[in-house]
Design brief:
This protein is of the alpha/beta class. The chain is built from 15 helices and eight strands. Strand 6 and strand 7 form a beta hairpin. The structure holds fe (ii) ion. Fe (ii) ion binds next to helix 7 and helix 11.
Length: 393
């Protein structure tokens, strides 16, 4: 475990500005939290899927009951777009909203963070705020109410937004984007359909494994990642098979948050570089793309993080006699998990092999490429895309 000891001595900073309230039924504390954040009139940001499921009504009923005047913006698409954030900021200004409430999965929450950046900087376009240093002013207060277990966006510092002009996913990564309060109520996740439970759950697993093995990992995030992996190993298949299993849903929501703590203080890596390229080119679900590539990138990285993958295997509850055996078992476990929760193969998503070079270039140019434990060049990404595609035919 020498690499662990070495990394623990690296200097780091750890900030977690979001107040987390967690537990079945805790969404009922919304009015109290609005008083705590000091807001008067919120813009509720959500998406059409949440509205169709009626989950936004749980929140707006609470606002009505508390006598809070609000406006609602539901123009957030999957893989949220720059134009969605810009329209959301316009809606907030038109409504004279002084704080934001995001209800939904990663898309509405990431979009709300970007809306907050636009409001804080009195800006029209989000593109200039890409990166880690461009956002220089605190966002207005944001209450996040997650309805899926995957992104951890309810407490991360990242807002991933699709640049529709240049067709790639840009990230605004700043503690200024972090929510003021995250109201994490597992009851709001029980109606998530099995396929979505699977994809978002493996997204959380990817955050934890990539966060734990990234070149810039740090020990507090590592601890969060390992507990996240343990919870996912215990609960993802259960939540997939029986959505009403509240214990499994609670474990998955907590795992998602812990994965978020891990990667926001460390980074994601090559799995996300590929998934974000695929998401921006084909508008494919983020979690599904991660799930497809996670075991294959782990295989690619194997020789560079045997000890860390053995710790992953330990968190998964797998027995092993050597770190080499443990690391190999961790990869096999992830492969089997994606089968058990019926995630699709890459080929079944109908990608065009002619696009693989461009996708490889996009992945290579992703800001998280340098965080992968084993360096990946454009040719390595292209070979991986090709191999994973052929493996699924
Ligand atoms: Fe992700």
């Amino acid at each position: 475990m020498n690499d662990m000891n070495y990394k623990c001595m690296n200097p780091f900073e750890f900030t977690l500005p979001t107040k987390v309230i967690f537990g079945p039924g805790c969404v009922s504390q919304l009015a109290e939290e609005i008083q705590n954040v000091g807001g008067r009139k919120p813009l509720v940001i959500t998406d059409p899927g949440i509205r169709k499921a009626g989950i936004d009504r749980i929140v707006t009923d609470l606002l009505d009951k508390a006598g809070v005047e609000y406006s609602l913006f539901d123009g957030v698409e999957a893989n949220p777009k720059d134009v969605n954030a810009e329209a959301g900021a316009k809606a907030a200004r038109a409504a004279s909203a002084d704080f934001l409430i995001a209800v939904g999965g990663g898309s509405p929450i990431d979009c709300a963070k970007a809306v907050g950046v636009l409001l804080a900087h009195d800006a029209e376009f989000i593109k200039p705020y890409e990166g880690k240093t461009a956002a220089t002013l605190p966002n207005p207060p944001l209450i996040t109410i997650p309805t899926t277990s995957g992104t951890g966006s309810e407490l991360t510092f990242s807002s991933v937004i699709t640049d529709t002009k240049n067709h790639y996913k840009m990230t605004v990564k700043s503690p200024y984007t972090a929510a003021t309060t995250a109201l994490c109520d597992p009851k709001l996740t029980v109606s998530v359909p099995p396929a979505f439970t699977a994809a978002t759950g493996v997204d959380a697993l990817t955050h934890s494994i990539e966060g734990f093995t990234a070149t810039c990992s740090e020990p507090i995030g590592d601890a969060a990642a390992l507990y996240s992996i343990e919870l996912i190993a215990k609960s993802l298949v259960r939540a997939f098979k029986d959505g009403s299993d509240l214990e499994a849903r609670s474990n998955m929501l907590m795992a998602s948050m812990l994965g978020g703590i891990s990667f926001s203080h460390s980074d994601v890596a090559s799995v996300h570089c590929i998934a974000e390229a695929l998401g921006s080119m084909y508008d494919l679900p983020h979690g599904t793309c991660n799930a497809i590539f996670l075991p294959f990138v782990m295989e690619y990285n194997m020789d560079y993080c045997i000890d860390r993958y053995a710790r992953v295997a330990e968190a998964m509850g797998l027995p092993f006699d050597s770190n080499e055996e443990g690391a190999a078992k961790a990869v096999e476990y992830v492969k089997q998990l994606t089968v058990d929760v019926e995630l699709p193969t890459f080929a079944s998503l109908n990608p065009d092999p002619k696009d693989f070079r461009t996708l490889a270039e996009m992945a290579y140019n992703n800001g998280s490429n340098g965080s992968n434990p084993r360096p990946m060049e454009i040719a390595d990404y292209e070979a991986l895309l090709d191999n994973v595609y052929k493996a699924g035919i």
